[in-house]
Amino acid sequence: MRYEKGEWHFYKFNGQTKWNEQNGDSESMQERRKYMLNAYRVLLTRARKGLVICVPEGNANKTVGGFWEDTTRIPEYYDGTYAYLKSLGLEEI
Fold first, then answer.
1. pTM
2. Consecutive H or E run containing 68
């Protein structure tokens, strides 16, 4: 999940080279987004003494030709989520 332009977007990695946004209003797509949201809810509510959320910086390196070195880890993918969590008052460690 990524927080972009004021709302959450759901993505699935194709296992090779790119993230595919899980959009659409089909019943199966709605179920998939519901499952992903519930998985995050479960992970974020199990901490008893504390919780660390890691939002990676991404890989800002580009090749000599100007292409991203790793197109699956572009920094902009993480910036919105990081800014949103900071706006909630989460402390950076």
1. 0.72
2. none
